[in-house]
Amino acid sequence: NPRIVFNEIPNGLPNATTLVVDGAQTIDLDEVPLQGGILVKVLALSLDPYMRNRMRPADVPGDMPAFPLGDVVTGFGVGVVLRSETSLVNVDEHVYGFIAYQRYIVIPSINGNALDMEGLGLQIIHNKYNLPWRYYVGILGMSGQTAYYGLKDISRPKAGETLFVSAASGAVGHLVVQFAKALGLKVIASCGSDQKVSLVKSLGADHVFNYKTVDTAAELKQHGPVDIYFDNVGGPTLEAAIENAAQKARFVLCGMNLWLLNRYRVKMEGLIMTDWIDKYLEEFHEVVPRNLASGKLKYLEHAYYGMDRVGEAFVDLLTGMNVGKSVLVLEDA
Ligand code: NDP
After folding, report:
1. How far is the CA of 232 from the centre of ligand 1 (A)?
2. CA distance 96 to 289
3. pTM
4. Do 203 and 310 belong to one domain?
5. Which domain of life is it from (predicted)?
């Protein structure tokens, strides 16, 4: 039962030996005890920037617990149920949630009435449009929902307003661009290469620039002011957005925390995507798969095939080599 193990605490950027595949453990699929829960064959795993923060020594504080060294890592995954001892989930149903990164996982039940997914809940997927299952760790999972929820209450968009989004070719950013256009906003977008700039333009953004070759503040001055900033990166980009904020601008702090500011009466509100699940999950699954299936929405995906590509994929993610959602595909189904 191959699994992805946190092998080494990185010094700076992770490298190919930070996460490694360990194939030593075996599992008897017919006999492994399920403790009233389910046995899942994992189909795809999400790779996300926040995981870098978990690759730290256990005694260093952080938002989420550090990955235990030498142990399997966890995150969002999608899989198919092979065996079930609970009436909550049937064999052949597909599930999405926070799981151990291994080929097969047992998810026990708690008191027989809930499945343990590290407190984040297990979702049964109703794939009405027969989309690839791996989409559920990307556009239809955390990344897509982050873009969708962030644009709802926090940004309170009004048609005709100007939205600026950073890391615009990334998993969240490229969807923010498209959702924002669909809401009638003017979209300014930044990203880190000319190739990404063309790609984001092709998704409908009104003005796209490479923040490595032009000055962000000057671009925003020319094409702003910014009514809504969807921040995925913090740092100097965020400061440039503050300098070019419109009166009563709204900043969605997706990627970073920030400094204070009152000159433009900017309202800032942190985004934790899980806060919005109860309110919008049903609507999300109504709207987004439909638009994806009809071709109205385009999904940029950077798929790596095979668990042993995890190291390379994660380094790509943290060095900006990814285009769209980074996903590790164990089996295309
Ligand atoms: P991306 O797919 O956008 O991948 C990361 C991108 O960030 C890279 O492609 C690169 O794009 C850019 N980047 C890489 N290194 C740096 C750097 N040092 N400084 C600035 N930019 C860099 O990731 P996601 O779309 O999954 O996530 C975007 C942000 O949203 C992240 O900060 C993530 O942690 C956050 N997030 C927050 C959630 C929440 O609930 N608040 C939920 C999900 C994500 P480029 O080449 O354009 O620079």
Report:
1. 5
2. 15
3. 0.86
4. no
5. Eukaryota
